[in-house]
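Entry: Catalase
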Amino acid sequence: ALDQTAGAFPHNPDKAQEYGDAASCPHAGHHQAPADASVHASTLSETNANEKTGAPPGAGENAVQGGLSRVRADDDGQPLSTNQGVPLADNQSSLKAGLRGPALLKDFILREKITHFDHERIPERIVHARGSAAHGYFEAYESLSDLTAATPFAEAGKRTPVFVRFSTVAGERGSKDTARDVRGFAVKFYTDQGNWDLVGNNIPVFFIQDAMKFPDLVHAVKPEPHHGMPQAASAHDTFWDFVSLMPESTHMLMWAMSDRAIPRSYRMMQGFGVHTFRFVNAQGESRLVKFHWSPVAGTHSLVWDEAVKISGADPDFHRRDLWEAIEAGEYPEWELAVQVFTDEDAERFSFDVLDATKIVPEELVPLRPVGRLVLDRNPDNFFAETEQVAFCAAHVIPGIDFTDDPLLAGRIHSYVDTQISRLGGPNFHELPINAPLAPVHNNQRDGMHRQTLNRGRVAYEPNSLGGGCPFQSGKMGFVPFPEPVAGDTLRGKPEKFAEHYNQATLFWNSQTEFEQRHIVDAFRFELSKVTVPAIRVRTVSMLRNVDEALAGKVAKGLGIPLPDPMPRALETSPEPETTHSPALSLTARPGKAGVRTRQVAILVHEGVDGAGVQSLAKALAKAGAIARLVGPRVGPLDTGKTRLDADASVENSPGALFDGVIVPDGQIGVDRLAADGRALEFLRDQYRHGKTMMAVGAGRTLVERADIPLANPDDGLLLVDAGSGADAFLSALARHRHPERETDPPAV
Ligand code: HDD
């Protein structure tokens, strides 16, 4: 029998295991081979083993395994060859009859190269096409074996390798990172009992309650089918037409119109499993569970004007940020917390936990931290890993089970199905990035692109010719939670699913003033892009059921009278347990990273105080912030005694890309900067976006020239004397943003 005691499970004390010997063979006790393996497993060619075929796999070993090392390729010091390994003499010219003559059909080298190139693209994901990923590990804080048999939670300190992909939803593969959109947060755990994929989002609820509506939702938000516009945007008629006819989307719309939908970084957003899942322990007892990832760096967002400008200045803003942080050793980290409750608790809630448009407020069920996720390695190859990774909501392991959430039900089907066309067949699980580290043994065979060389004559079960292998593991395997089922076969929804507004109101009530302002602005912006007036009116009528002030402000912003509230499905709504949940505000989640990895521009020109710039840059670096010298152009600048090397320019790196700015002292340099409209625009954007700004000595002139009001400077606008200010700047920067200076319309 398999040894299932917690301590006997192999650990993954670090990610190196992914490539090491430990990963290339099954762990002792995880597979029981037939008593005499040679009788059943050997083939006639065994004795002819050579370098290519290798030694026969050891007892119970799976050929697909071996981590990623077996497929890594390095070309260092190697000659060019064809795909058949034939050395290439000349990679410059096609084969011709005479130097000016026709190219020849027999040029198999040219044809192989072009043919491969012609097929280098695969279909992009129908949703979540644009994304970025990284490797890392999950580490459990403590054993959760009383709650779940899921092996990543087996004991304190246990590490499970993971691959995590973040994404936008609506945009195509090459679209901008900073679109207003939900972000995917998909985690593949390579556990020692198989792969578990927690395929979540950065928003804890969803637009719809039933998978039946998913294709409609996606068709509505994607570019409109007649002209293919707009790209990566929900601000258009079809999206708002659909959601305003689907009041169940109201709660999600509140989140999607909040700053949550424009995160500052993938490293600075929460993640949620969204659905209610089940934990099942070794005794078969079950609790309901919700999964929450919280970033150690805090949950931070952009503001809309900034997101728009970043999308022009650096469409790869989030991809670059994730990549650079990991390369710099600033490993992004999240804490996993669970909300655990019983079926009886769930019965009592005013909402249905099977309804993915609802959260379980933290006031009802507190969060219990259970482990941490660390991303510490960038992929070697974007296509082979980030593009070919196949997440699947159906991938669960013993200890984790589904609930009857009707949105989840559709997902359990959809993901494998979509990979079959996206990745070209049923063997996508053999791609190195998808292959589990746990052994795979079954009688599934053949199909497109099959890698495994299944040995022996037996491909069925039961069998006697293979010694009965591979065999069922009974209770040691995945046993579904025996949830009782009752009821007629019908299409419909449970009663509590009909309440659509309580939690939208809860979200609105829990936002601070500036967050509410941003929500109003986002509705106004999005609906202003809608061309059919009736759709605007319908949306505002829906918002009247959330909050009168919200609806009033949006109506005013659109220049329309307040319509009647949309009729509710329920005459009397159930009383919500809570009407205010502070945890729903971004301001409740500052994180612990302070200024680490924050990007600060120091504007430089010939004639600024070079020594002052250097000492500020040093102080920033010491605190873990990243100082960039932004000049009129890149390259060395003479500042008198010191020479500064500008690594960015006001042309290639405008103000929206930075978390803060410093204008150094030195009148001559500052005057030169003031003559450059881009430097003034840089400061205006920094001001408008609520960034931390500091002017040292004569640097003040530049701020004045940019028409930034200095009469009552807020905490994020510092005017200091030469040689001071570094500490004040750093503590203002740690506040992320200074929304108190915002006005509508912006003053600057
Ligand atoms: Fe989905 C991809 C998350 C509802 C069908 N989904 C996809 C990805 C994420 C999510 C993060 C990208 C995975 C990656 O990085 O490769 N999806 C969600 C969440 C949902 C949700 C949190 C609601 C709670 N999805 C949902 C429904 C369906 C799908 C209801 C279909 C019935 N999702 C898919 C898909 C995708 C996908 C079509 C596209 C590419 C892929 O799967 O691999 O199967």
